[in-house]
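tl;dr need the bound structure. longer version: we got a ligand (nicotinamide-adenine-dinucleotide) that a collaborator sent over and nobodys looked at where it sits. i said id run it. heres the input, straight from their email, havent touched it
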Amino acid sequence: MHLKRVLITGGAGFVGSNIAVALKTHVSGIEVVALDNLYRKGSSLNLPRLEKNDIKFIRGDVRNPQDLLQAGKIDFLIECSAEPSVLAGKDGDTDYLVQTNLYGAINCAEYCRRNNAGMIFLSTSRVYPIDPLTNCRLIEKADRLELSDNQEVAGLSSKGVSEEFPMAGARSIYGATKYSAEIMLEEYRQAFSIPIVIDRCGVIAGPWQFGKVDQGIAVFWLASHMFQKPLKYIGFGGTGKQVRDMMHIDDLVRLVLLQLEDPAKFAKGVWNAGGGRNISVSLIELTEICRRITGNDVQIGSDPQTRYADIPVYISDTDKINSFCSWKAEKSVEKIIYDIHEWLNDNPEACQLFK
Ligand SMILES: NC(=O)c1ccc[n+]([C@@H]2O[C@H](COP(=O)([O-])OP(=O)(O)OC[C@H]3O[C@@H](n4cnc5c(N)ncnc54)[C@H](O)[C@@H]3O)[C@@H](O)[C@H]2O)c1
């Protein structure tokens, strides 16, 4: 597909800014517009980077359809704006979360309809319900929990969670906003023949992520090692054995570029995208990697109490996307942490946020 002008909502965020820069680097003649309300602490630090790469920035809000109009005529939209924390909304005020993650995504789809444009939606593994992921069969190893191959739930194996996983049950308010958005986007796809691609991502990590304890764990953990701040293993007995798969931002960017070549081909169903079993890590293992790369030991406390919406293991089973096209995540957890370390070493301004 020959793209002329692409709008990236949440374009000053971690994922949005990296996709924006990659598009300018890899697609000749493309115009890229990044729209962001700079809600996320740290996103404003991406603005000079966007400018340097000749990406037009609009300070705007996806909750307001009028703001999207400022982007002018587009032929594709990549929706990366969100309140992405799984703890968001838990203290009672769900307004911002719902308005941004659900209505914002619908406003984006509506803008695509009016522009006859395609869309990629960055969804999340958090759409999968919590109970069956908490009560599944786990094997406890010395440094991590593993998913057993012998599960009662469909779509679950030692390879992780596939798109066949049953969708009934609570999934966190954050997960529900993203799942509701998926459902609406599916309707937009069907009713208006818009090529809308839905990628359900596990943990994404890499440079230019302004990670915090509840979102962006890889950066948060590494930065805490760099700046010698105490950490805590929280939940599941406080042993640090909980596991996530991780996808380097470069691997996600590669997938998005591939999908942009032929969006219609990918505009059906949903696609799990993540590091998979081979690129997964427990907190204990992450500590060891951070220790090796920074040379620093930090004090690690323990809180056995499991937090709201937390799950012991999440691994993306990516067999569907792997067999559909040539894409597979490649960069290891070590490489992810190494690249974040390099980025922070080169960017003292970014470091300030973690000190
Ligand atoms: N980072 C991950 O591990 C991960 C995993 C799965 C899915 N995702 C999804 O990927 C997308 C990007 O996440 P991210 O990690 O880059 O988060 P991020 O917080 O770095 O980026 C999101 C951007 O959206 C902006 N934003 C928030 N509310 C907005 C609004 N109302 N209008 C306009 N802009 C707004 C923020 O300022 C921020 O720059 C999100 O949709 C998230 O749900 C992220």
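gonna send this back to them w/ a short note. The chain has 13 helices and 17 strands.
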